[in-house]
Amino acid sequence: MEFLSGNEALAQGAYEAGLSFAAAYPGTPSSEILEYLAGQKGVDCQWSVNEKVAYEVALAASIAGARSLCASKHVGINVAMDPLMTSVYTGVNGGFVVVTADDPGIHSSQNEQDNRFVASFAKMPLLEPASPREARKFMLPAFRLSERFDTPVLLRLTTRISHTKENIVTSRRGAPKLKPFRVDPQKYVMVPRNAYRRHIEIEKRLVRMKAEAEKSPLNRIEIRDRKIGFVVSGVSYLYAREMYPEASFLKLGFSYPFPAALAREFSRQVRRVYVIEELEPFLEEQLPERPVGQKCLLIHKKRHRVGKESAQ
């Protein structure tokens, strides 16, 4: 057992999952991820001159067949958007996880953006661990998801997860498995003709990923008191559980594509539904309308402050 921060736990989980290559550009609250990995044997780690370069070299390692990771703080994703958007078209080879460490509260940043919207904009899957323990646990499913659906996976931490520490039970490292590289210009060279075909594949993939999110063990319904239910993801789950330990929860770890059927099932079992999110109403805007014949009050809480109640 080790006492690890969220960043360190995530890095440990990636190491155990057979990570071979990692690249990053330093910036709080993400810096410790690469620092921790640099101390592990068998992982090629590189600080890059900026986030765009970090993304490109990590993507190249993935295409070559290695499980790879790119980490940055939230504003670093802005710098890497050019290769990020195209990489969803090209897909991957070895699993490729992109870590965004968002900074709600602007503790060490120039803005307060919510990078969950990058997932929906780019049409890539989004995972949101709620604690350091989950940050480690989510890494193997993230790599498997990437390889199964041939796509980069966005994994979102926030400051309180990145820098909180928790006792973590670690495991032995899985043997890295390099997938064979195959020359495939139609897949990896995004001239318009190829990009058109790949866009069709993205839309088909999105449907399959939504079906996967509906049954994923990373999402779960917790029924306790049926008078009140919360829809939450990330660290908001722990905030809400601390204040309302007897409430019911729809806890989302695989939050995009949004599991609408699971949300409907949850809303049928509780009288009132609250949405608690760090920053923007990402989950709220994707919630389906209440089931026909069900009386359910949807209340949005932005930045953990109670908003105006409105019957849906």
Short description:
By secondary structure, the chain is an alpha/beta fold. It is built from 13 helices and 16 strands.
Helix-strand blueprint:
Layout: E1 2-5, H1 6-16, E2 21-24, H2 32-37, E3 44-47, H3 51-64, E4 68-73, H4 74-79, H5 81-90, E5 96-102, H6 116-122, E6 126-127, H7 132-137, H8 139-149, E7 153-158, H9 159-163, E8 165-168, H10 185-188, H11 192-215, E9 219-222, E10 225-233, H12 236-243, E11 247-252, E12 254-256, H13 260-267, E13 272-277, E14 297-302, E15 305-306, E16 310-311
Helix pairs in contact: 3-5
What shape does the CA trace take?
A: globular
Low-pLDDT stretches are 291-297, 299-312
**Percentage beta strand:** 15-25%
Query: How would you write the strand order of the largest sheet?
Result: 3-2-4-5-7-6-12
List keywords for this structure.
312 residues, alpha/beta, seven-stranded mixed beta sheet, 13 helices, globular, disordered C terminus
